[in-house]
Amino acid sequence: MKKLCIFDFDGTLFDSVEDVVICFNEVLSEYGFPTLTRDEYIPCLGGNIDDIVSKILGPNSTPQNIESIKKTYLDLYASSKKEKTIPFPDAKETLKYLEDKGILLAINSNRLNFSLNEFVLKYLSDIDFVSIEGQNIDSPPKPDPFGVNNILNKTNLSSDEALYIGDSMTDIKTAQNAGIDCVIVEWGYGDETAFNHDYPLKVISEFSQLYDLFDF
């Protein structure tokens, strides 16, 4: 029986891409690099920040440019209001329902820890997450299973008692590397590669479809 749900953040619990687009385009313009559309950004997302910036820069990707864009972006993003970053419809209600049914909840993301905690405090403060595993200087990013393993250790649960919910190939690979089952959502930033992959237990189009995977 599944006792733990580990959620990806961006594209799974929160719709966050618009604020990312705004901040990155402002920084790219400042440095004289071409800006991107929303649809052009989405395939660049999902890895760690260095990988993301490298993909965004394309032919202009050099170690120096990556470092400059990354630092300026992180400073700008941290100080921005991020008013367009909000939970997907029914996200909070689903978390509350699962929690009330005794399912443990956690977050595993490549987003920086301080940023994860900022949004959780703002929008999900009444949800009791057992662990929030974001990116920091000492931990490898997804798809490394480092964060998932930390969550399993904290909860004293085995891999077969956990379920990973994400939206992208990075999430599928993370679940595979951790040896846990996963579900892919269609409302995020994934593509047909993730939707048609044979590893996920299920591909869902609305949060309530998660309930079918639990013996309540």
Number of helices: 9
CATH architecture of the largest domain: 3-Layer(aba) Sandwich
How far apart are the termini? 10 Å
Please state the overall shape, judged from the principal axes of the Cα atoms.
Answer: globular
Provide the β-strand percentage band.
Answer: 15-25%
Summed up, the domain count is 2
According to CATH, the fold-level topology of the largest domain is Rossmann fold
CATH superfamily of the largest domain: HAD superfamily/HAD-like
What is the residue-averaged pLDDT? Answer: 95
The Rg value, from CA coordinates, equals 17 Å
List segments where confidence is low: pLDDT < 50 over at least 5 consecutive residues. Answer: none
Helical residues, percent: 40-55%
Topology pattern, helix = H, strand = E? EEHHHHEHEHEHEHEHE
Task: Give an account of the 3D structure.
The mean pLDDT is 95. The chain is an alpha/beta fold. It folds into two domains: 4-15 and 85-213, HAD superfamily/HAD-like (Rossmann fold, 3-Layer(aba) Sandwich), CATH 3.40.50; 17-79, DNA polymerase, domain 1 (Orthogonal Bundle), CATH 1.10.150. The chain has helices spanning 17-31, 38-41, 49-57, 63-79, 91-100, 113-123, 146-155, 169-178, 192-195, and strands spanning 4-7, 14-15, 86-87, 104-112, 131-135, 162-166, 181-185, 202-204. It is globular. It has nine helices and eight strands. The N and C termini lie close together (10 Å). The strands form two sheets. Strands 5-4-1-6-7-8 form a six-stranded parallel sheet, sandwiched between helices.
